[in-house]
Design goal:
With 209 residues, the protein is α/β, with parallel strands linked by helices. It has eight helices and five strands. The termini are far apart. The model has no long low-confidence stretch (mean pLDDT 94).
């Protein structure tokens, strides 16, 4: 064991020049995606608008629901937790939840109906006028999220989409679209959670000011 670094010499030998170069390339790609976001005034405005509608919803007793698939489901749950738990401030919980956390419901509906119906059926049962549905889909083409947005709009809910560059099919169903300027799934998801943190911080700051 190397006492200076704590890394075994045999392990350290694996970090050759090619691997180090690849690590740097990935970091640079992530930074470049965020730089594109930083330079897009329309996208920055969409983030600010999302903050405003979320604060308004909370002020009027409405709720925010989050949904996604795979890594985006984890990001949806993360964002919901920032609201219902806390971000920076020691404050009361805000009514926000991720729709995929009840595994009994999820597996029952996927089995009895279709996986495409897991979110739309739940929104049909609990969504109300003025509530917000946030859907995370890097492609913007996730069928279960598209179905949920269609039901949400029928119920006069506000829809916020977190997608990649094109917005996919979800684009036309979004009241507010945050389409990260990338087609690379990991880079999109990295920016999704960054934007999510920005929104959570600003909503908390504005609502509890």
């Amino acid at each position: 064991m190397d006492n200076l670094t704590g890394i075994h010499p045999a392990v350290r030998q694996g970090f050759g020049g090619k691997k180090m170069k690849k690590v740097k390339e990935i970091i640079i790609a992530s930074i470049e995606t965020k730089q594109k976001l930083l330079g897009d005034e329309d996208l920055l405005k969409a983030i600010c608008d999302t903050v405003n509608v979320m604060v308004h919803a909370f002020q009027h007793g409405n709720r925010i629901y989050f949904c996604g698939n795979g890594g985006s489901a984890a990001d949806a749950q993360h964002m919901a937790a920032e609201f219902s738990g806390r971000f920076y401030k020691d404050r009361k919980a805000l009514p926000a939840e991720a729709l995929h956390c009840n595994t009994s419901y999820l597996t029952a509906v996927a089995n009895d109906y279709s996986f495409d119906d897991i979110y739309s059926r739940l929104i049909g049962g609990i969504g109300e006028n003025g509530d917000i549905l946030v859907g995370l889909s890097t492609s913007g083409n996730s069928k279960n999220i598209i179905n949920a947005f269609e039901v949400a709009r029928q119920k006069a809910m506000i829809t916020v989409g977190f997608t990649g560059a094109t917005g996919g099919k979800l684009k036309t169903l979004c009241d507010h679209l945050i389409n990260i300027p990338s087609t690379d799934t990991p880079r999109i998801q990295e920016s999704h959670i960054m934007v999510g943190h920005i929104i959570c911080e600003l909503v908390e700051q504005k609502y509890f000011s």
